[in-house]
Amino acid sequence: MIDESFHLTPLDVRRTEFPAALRGYDRARVDEFRDRVANELERLTRLNHELDNKAKGFHEQLRAFRERDKALNDALVSAQQLRQETRDQAEREAQLSLREAKAEGDRLIDAAKAEVRRLAGEIEGLERARRAYLAQLRALVARQLAEIDAIPAEEKSKAPVPATTGAAQSAPPPPPPEVSPKTTTVPLPAVPSNGAAPAESEETPRQAVQTPGWLKAVPSDK
Q1: Which of 105, 201, 203, 216 is most exposed, with the fewest beta carbons within 10 Å of its own?
Q2: Neighbour count for residue 140 (Cβ, 10 Å)
Q3: Cα separation, 102 vs 100, whole angstroms
Q4: Is residue 197 within 8 Å of 131, Cβ to Cβ?
Q5: C-alpha–C-alpha distance, residues 207 and 153, integer Å
Q6: Cα separation of 134 and 117, whole Å?
Q7: Distance (Å, whole) CA 126 – CA 194
Q8: What is the pTM of this model?
Q9: pLDDT tens, 151-196?
Q10: For the ranges 13-22, 73-82, 144-153, 195-204, the one whose mean pLDDT is highest
Q11: 194/122 Cα distance (integer angstroms)
C-alpha cells in the first residue's frame, strides 16, 4: 500500500544515513546508488513541474478556445437570424413594391384608355362636323349655281321683239338694257356642337344643276 502523504525529495535521499551493520551492504556502492536516485528524483521533479506548467497552459488555451468557439457559435446564430430577418424584410418590401407597381400600371392603363376614348370621341365629333360642313357647302354652292343659271333666262325674257318692216330691219337694234346680275347672299348655317348634319330646309327646293369641276375635288362626306 502506497502512502500518498509521504513525499521523497532528492535532498532527503542525500541526507539519509544508514547505520553500519555486520555483513551489511557495501557503503560506497550504497552512496553511489543514493546519488543516482537523488539525481533521478531531481530530473523527474523538474519534468513534473514542466509538465504541470504545460498542462496549465493547455488548460488556459482550451478555455480560451472554448470561449472563442462559444463566441463564434453565438455570432453564427446571430448571423443566421439576421440573414433570415433580412430575407423576410426583403421579400415583404419586394411584395409591396410589386403591388404598388401593379396598382400604378393599372392606373396608367385606365388613364390611357380614358384618353383614347376621349380622343376617339373628339375625332368622331370632328368627322361629323366635317361632313356637316361639306353638306352645307355643297348646298350653298348648288343654290348659288342655280341662281347664276337663272340669270340668262331672265335677260332673254326681257329682250325687245325686232320690227318686221324694211325700215325697222335696216335700223340697228337698240342696245339691250343693262341688267345687273341678281345676287343673293345665303348665310351659311352654323354647325351644331355635336357635329350632326342639320336637316335641309323644306322651303329650299332642290334643283338639278351641273356640279363644276372644282367642286368635284372636294372630298365626299360619304
Answers
A1: 203
A2: 14
A3: 5
A4: yes
A5: 15
A6: 26
A7: 9
A8: 0.36
A9: 866 565 665 555 444 444 444 444 444 444 444 444 444 544 444 4
A10: 73-82
A11: 10
